[in-house]
Amino acid sequence: MELKEKILSSYVAFENGVNINSDLHEIRTEALQNFEKLGFPTKKLEAWKYTSLNSILKEDYSIFPDRDAAVELADVKKYFIHEIDSYKIIFVDGKYSSFLSNTTHDGKDICLLSAAFSKEKYKPIVEKYFNKIAKQDNLTSLNTAFATEGAFIHIPKNVEVEKPIQIINFTTGKENATMLQPRNLIVVEKNAHVQIIERHQNLNNNAVLTNSVTEIYTDTHATVDYYKIQNDNNSASLVDNTYIEQQKESTCSLHTFSFGGNITRNNLNFYQKGEHINSILKGITIIEGKQHVDHHTLVNHIEPNCESHQDYKGIYADRSTGVFNGKVIVEKEAQKTNAYQQNNNVLISDKATVNAKPQLEIFADDVKCSHGCTIGQLDDQALFYMQQRGIPKKEANALLMYAFANTVLESVKIPEVKKRITKLIADKLGVNIGFDL
Amino acid sequence: MSKYTEDDLREELKTKEYEYGFYTDIESDKFPNGVNEEIVRAISKKKNEPEWMTEWRLEAFRIWEQMEEPEWANVTYKKPNFQEISYYSAPKKKPKLNSLDEVDPELLATFEKLGISLEEQKKLANVAVDIVMDSVSVATTFKETLAEKGIIFMPISEAIQEHPELVKKYIGSVVPKTDNFYAALNSAVFSDGSFCYIPKGVRCPMELSTYFRINEGGTGQFERTLVIADEGSYVSYLEGCTAPQRDENQLHAAVVELIALDDAEIKYSTVQNWFPGDSEGKGGVFNFVTKRGLCETNAKISWTQVETGSAITWKYPSCILKGNNSVGEFYSIAVTNNHQQADTGTKMIHLGKNTKSTIISKGISAGKSQNSYRGLVQINARAENARNFSQCDSLLMGNECGAHTFPYIEAKNKSAQIEHEATTSKIGEDQLFYCNQRGIDTEKAIALIVNGFSKEVLNKLPMEFAVEAQKLLEISLEGSVG
């Protein structure tokens, strides 16, 4: 059976497990109809021109993974940023793991979406925010239809969350291929401040397809600092849809580190709904083998006097393929916008491919918009210089690549995350140097 | 052209609606509206074409029937009804003349209004002009001078008769019939166009040029141009267009194919000033053009275009860099005003080793217009050491217009070096103030700044064209201050 058919037919079974007499269920049913109409994206769609999901849609995914999966802390500890104290919202096969997690309701809510759905006191927030900025496109609709669990983070005004929050989705799927639909809702109210680290990790070699949707609302003067660490194994694929709405004077920065996975597609959408907003989108991609990473970004400048900064660096080895599709829209009203977009790529193998499409759509005249995109190689002279001074070629190469990617790392605000990423880069490049020379 | 002064411009700006919007009444031999196999056969028969050409057209027509009109471009318009267009119209008196004296005086008057005095051009500009008026060439100059060097420059309809082996070999080799909707339509019904062949090692001594003109109301113009530069040759080709003012939309779907064989160089310059529609956006030409060049080893193709006209422009002059060390260049200025929409750019396909391409695109949008750059740079796996530099700058005038860039960059070779940059800006108030202070009025100041912004591209045009283009830019942006 085709995956789409299988998903559609399993909705009836899904309805048995949820409350079908709620507003939420109406949203779900509508989303399912939308998915039924649109189906999975194909390369014929402009937005999916360079990324084909065909190879991963062939798997016979189980849509409702086994409930009883359990993991030992010792097995998964290495996937946490464990050097620091943090709140943790951990899911195993799409189900909440209270044993691994550390949540709170003390002055703020760092808990579960299922709890927010079921408890009366969260109803106004869910009604106001859930599924409001998420696009009604194919995969987001699929997620909306089936999503029952994910992180729910609500930070009231003037609260600065004292430690980072880690959201990790583990997959054990011991017996078969697993499809997951995690859904996160993050509401950060006026003047609040939060740091979040998100990760998806497959723990065995069975196929996993994660179709994740995250909605983030950043109210006036709030600050959100978000890190996505994508270093999954080669049997895991990820479609990560993130929607961010910002109100005036807010700052949201989002770093995506893509070092692994089979096919990774990041749909990152920023909507600026006030003045003096700053949006920062950065990413480092270092992949090899047949890995595929696609960064699809959208920054929609709706109001005047806002800024956006994009900086994506990519290093591609073996037969890997990278895609960068960055779109900046400056609406008629958004005068004095300052939008900047940079995408630099290095190919280190003859078989690697990069497809870039930096796109600008500008309807206002008094704006500063620029984009730059390069594809090239490491500087031979710099390599030679280092080799002359006794640095082996491999290390010299790694140093150059690290320097190349460093503009993205510079703005990482959590030192432990920076350290972890640095280590991941070193591992990825097969060297044993700390880069903190 | 060269005696054009500021006073003239001021006068012109005052009186300007669409300067070249006149209509010459020449009795036309016109086909009934619509297109079908019969019409295609009839066009072919009318032109006395050999059997293979008729078949080629019919094949293209069958392909076209299967195709759908593309919708991906960033333009909106009412699609033309292809059955309401007459696909052939030719001036009835068909003069085939060697001297101008024999030409219909009414035609000559038309050309004078257009500013192409044949006499003058013959003497002063050293330009051979192959004038296409309503699809059939009526006058060809300098043919004999060119013939001495073995250069063939004639209407394609004659070339089909006289040099069938060349036409047969190259037509459709760069833009196949199946390429796209409009190219297929053009292949089926093309009326006429220019054919040019430069023999081995010959440097064409003069700029070759054609003036296209849409004349008969409701007649679609389907030009077909084929330029072949044989090994080691050089040619510079100019194309310029003006069209009469008309209330209904006119369709223009041309195909231009360039073939630069080993060590050859082709420079193709266009000034396009089709009727853009009036200030309400009514009327105006739909310009759906397929232009593509093929470079063999060490060959070079350079496209330069100044696009100021047309209601809708849909045009991507491209280079296929097939041979090693071949070079492709694209220099473009696209100006849109009022309700014009332009979706234009280029494709650089790098196949050979050490291939280089340069893209400089300047977009200027004013009024309520939309101006898009759409480009592709593709480095194939075997294209070692390919190099590309792209620069797309947009200038916005007023907050009702839009400027867009859609660059596609695809690299499959690690030795490729690609740089792309784009900026968007507006004319600074301080710049205008500076000019005003020095007694330059705002309109002139804008013209000055726009010319500075476009200079890199204007410099690439042949001298006579550059003057004309500069003038066109000023006229096109008239009334857009604010």
Automatic annotation (TrEMBL), chain A:
Coiled coil: none annotated. Residues 24-167 form the SUF system FeS cluster assembly SufBD N-terminal domain. Residues 173-404 form the SUF system FeS cluster assembly SufBD core domain. GO terms for biological process: iron-sulfur cluster assembly. It holds the Pfam family SUFBD_core. Belongs to the iron-sulfur cluster assembly SufBD family. This is Iron-regulated ABC transporter permease protein SufD.
From TrEMBL, chain B:
It comes from the Bacteria. One of its GO terms (biological process) is iron-sulfur cluster assembly. Residues 50-204 form the SUF system FeS cluster assembly SufBD N-terminal domain. Residues 212-453 form the SUF system FeS cluster assembly SufBD core domain. PANTHER family: FES CLUSTER ASSEMBLY PROTEIN SUF (PTHR30508), UPF0051 PROTEIN ABCI8, CHLOROPLASTIC-RELATED (PTHR30508:SF1). Belongs to the iron-sulfur cluster assembly SufBD family. NCBIfam families: PRK11814.1 (NF008773), sufB (TIGR01980). This is Iron-regulated ABC transporter membrane component SufB.
